Records
---
Amino acid sequence: MNEIEIKRISKFLSLILRHQPETINLRLDENGWADVEELRVKSAKKRICFTLEELNEVVDTNNKKRFAFNGDKTKIRASQGHSIAIDLALQPLQPPEFLYHGTGHGNVSSILEKGIEKRSRQHVHLSADKETAEKVGMRHGKPVILTIRTGKMYEEGILFYRSENGVWLTDYVDIKYISK
């Protein structure tokens, strides 16, 4: 499968598994899992066709590891980034002392005024390294990397989770924990 087709299927999966399963009348369970065969059949009705091998290639080659299979590859879900109510069943973890948030230059003043809000997503996303945060920030214009004092947040009782693809998640980051 060529790179363009992989990207097309990946974008479609992001839409369906993270935001709008109803687009193809797909059922997700409470943890965001969809039956792979149901996904394939209902996607084909929207002219997005892929074999099990091609779906496996999309999941395996996605550089952000946005999707995950269950153990026997009969179910698939998005690793994080949902705008629909999903319980990823993640366990709270102690984060590193610092994590990073990449954003666009145009968002910085609002963040330094209000903190980092999850908005339509279920969580605020934080990166373990500056390089990843910079890539995230580039999607929003001129990138700015904010350093988050997550060790201090954790000491003060704020919960953190890590998704299957290594993205750190929390509900909100108050301005007192943020530095440029």
---
Amino acid sequence: MKIYPIESGNFKLDGGAMFGVVPKTIWNKTNPADENNLIDIAARCLLIEDGNRLILIDTGMGNKQSEKFFGYYSLWGTHSMDKSLAKYGFSRDDITDVFMTHLHFDHCGGSVNWNKDKTGYEVAFKNAKYWTNKSHWNWATNPNPREKASFLSENILPIQESGQLNFIKKNEGDFLEKSELDFDIFFVDGHTEKMMIPHIKYKDKIIVFCADLIPTAGHLPLPYVMGYDTRPLLTLPEKAKFLNAAAENNYHLFLEHDAHNEIITVEKTEKGIRVKEIFKCQDILI
């Protein structure tokens, strides 16, 4: 098995929204804001090469939305899905599986493209199976008013229409559940219904793709919960359970949204779970 970081693009989000009830004077120390109160955000995906399978976890925002849409998110940097795949000798057509932790636009927007020649939407990875879970799919395709702006039909429905949609089976098991993709999954419901957190056994390590459970290294303290979470009081015990396991088992946490810290380990301190070490992806994965 080989694992590669895939940088699909960077953007900015409101720091207050990213840290919920935590005052700016506190979160600004770890995630400094610009003059518009915006903080740096990454869309760092993960590619797993395992035998004949090439599994992509999350796909970023993509590039099919309007200029007005992207104007809300202050895109920056030169990263892209295609350039990042090419860096490791791959293209979109090589991907066999696309695993979507959840269907918010910044995690699955790159799963579907706008085809100018056909004037329509089409899947961006034509040879891949796309994976979500049934509970989350139903949640995303019948969105509540609070999340409706995050679940865009053009990012979601073409996957079903193409016949490439597959569901991960959810069992009512222990902390981690086996999946059809040969890695374990922690299902969480605080951020959105049945978000999936992959745990990948890699050499002598467990690499955890943190998605929106731990967006950045600055979100480790339990009360530091995003304003975007639909059930913040449920996020608290989910974070506690996960972070205790991460500290006890020395998980390497792959941070999807932290533009400056790529992988961290954590430890228990008098103040709770905090950062132990910070790593570059190239030091751990490649």
